[in-house]
Description:
Layout: H1 2-48, H2 54-76, H3 83-93, H4 99-104, H5 125-144, H6 150-155, H7 161-176, H8 181-196, H9 205-242, H10 248-267, H11 274-282, H12 293-312, E1 323-325, E2 331-333, H13 411-417, H14 421-431
Helix pairs in contact: 1-2, 1-3, 1-5, 7-8, 7-9, 8-9, 9-10, 9-12
Amino acid sequence: MAEEQTWREIARNTSRKINLGWWLQTLATPLLITSLLIACAILITRRELDMIPWLELSAGTLLVIAITGIFSWLAARPSFETNKQSLVRIEAAMKLRNALTAADHGIAPWPEVPGMINDGVHWHWKRLLPPIAGALLIVTCGFIIPVHAKADNRSEQQEPSAWSDIDTSLDQLDNQEIVQQEYIDEMRKKLEKLREQSQNDWFSHSSLEATDNLKQNHQTEQENLKSNLQRAERSLNALQNQGGKMNAAQKQRLLNEFDQAVKKMQQGGMKPNKKLLEQLKKIDPEQLNQLTPEQMEQLRENMRKHAQGLGQGGKQPGDDKGEGEGDGDGEEEGDGPGRGGINRGPGHAPRPLGKAHGDTGAGKHEGLKSEDQRNALPGDLLGTNDAQHDVDKSKVGPSAGGASSGKGKGGDRVWKNSLLPNEKKALKKFFE
């Protein structure tokens, strides 16, 4: 009984070894093809995604290899060997003369188990290991080959310059505390919404249109606040310095201008900082005499500084008009060159080459003279000369006609002297 169990165990081991060899041989080619596809899929995934899912990639690789192994096992199964076939193989290799087959059928007892078992099967590792090692190397290369992700390339893409201009302007306004923080936060939220869209859409028509609209609104609010601050400051200056010389209508006009400027600052999207706005709201233009000159001058100075900060906040070269400061309280058109802009032309200065000459020579026609005739071209006028026609005034009377004494010319000469013999024969035959 012990011999039977031992021989059957040896047969099972032999069967497993033979079936494993068949499976590995069938798996070799599909495993190489599958490993190439896996490596390509890994490289593409690493290129397309910013965050690489290493766990998912590893699990997917193992799953695909397992599926390939299962299909290879199913394909190799018809060649597998049973335990009885392995008993026949063992008795043939050990020359037992059908002793194991007879014992398996109960005809003869099981023979003794020798110390050395020869099943007649040997591993050919040189054929089995290269495909497995190659597949493992290919998959490993898919994981370790350096690949630059597209997301990295997109991250290097520069954003529209208008966004940087708006950021710079908001930072300056925030650092100088010129306007209220609510406006700056709202503008930054709108700018962040533009940045949140896909980088491929940053320079699309809709994105650029929204950017231009945002920048234009910001500049408009900035100009409005600056204009209102300047108007309020000029009104206070006129009321303080020249109030005694004005009549009631002039004073009322300045008071209305100041009041409208303050209301527009309160209602505008960009409001001055709360401290300055509270000071302006507390001022009663009709009771300016209650303020000391120092207080009035300090208030006007704050308004001028705020207006100056708004004029400089976030502007780039080319945004300013050709303006110069006059001797009065306001701004006048200057004679110097401006810095241009997309909405106001290039800003050329008048007469950049100096003063204009008094006599421009309008209406005069002057010819160009060339003294060097060697460089004359066909069609050039070399000169003109006044002369009289040389007319032959001798009288010519009628003359008598006669036979021509000269040789034939034109067609007459051709007919008589210029025809070849074959041509003459043809013409003669034609006119007969």
